Amino acid sequence: MVRGSAGFYATIRADADRSYTTCKAEAFAAPMCFLTSDFEAGSDNFAPYELALMDAYSQVGRIDLARLVRGGKPFQRLGRMLSGQEIKVEHLNATRRAVLGETDGKTGEPMTGKAWGQEVSKRFRHDVQLKTFVTGFL
């Protein structure tokens, strides 16, 4: 972590059971502990700690790392989806927006799991693997 004086004072360590090698973009996405309840409700607006981290990286001249934090929402969303926690339609819509680079507030998104599953099934009706995944929502 970066202190206001631009000095590093702490590191974040994952437990050994869930450690893995990943790309730079995922490695420098803001940690999940920085997120607020807005994220859980489906918002991809930046939380105060995410903004502070981007600012800290910028202050020490690491604009590249600040950009990785800014672009980290898809990794946060995918991590949330794969964590084993309950998946709600808000998470599905937010993951889709994050991956496509869309902003919050998009109209016309499915509001129920059934509607989401029907929309995806219609759009990707020939994709066997996706059909298997979506079956749980129909």
Features:
138 residues, mainly alpha, 8 helices
Structure characterization notes:
This protein is mostly helical and 138 residues long. The chain has a domain at 1-89. It is 49% helix and 0% strand. α3 (48-59) packs antiparallel against α4 (63-70) and α5 packs antiparallel against α6. It is globular, with a radius of gyration of 17 Å.
Q: What's the layout of helices and strands?
A:
Layout: H1 24-27, H2 37-40, H3 48-59, H4 63-70, H5 73-81, H6 89-100, H7 113-123, H8 128-134
Helix pairs in contact: 3-4, 5-6
Helix content: 40-55%
> Spans of 5+ residues with little confidence (pLDDT < 50)?
none
Estimate the strand proportion. Answer: under 5%
Q: Report the strand count.
A: 0
Provide a count of the helices: 8
> Between the first and last Cα atoms, what is the distance in angstroms?
43 Å
Described by strand count, sense and barrel closure, the largest sheet is:
none
Radius of gyration: 17 Å
Overall average pLDDT: 82
Structural class: mainly alpha
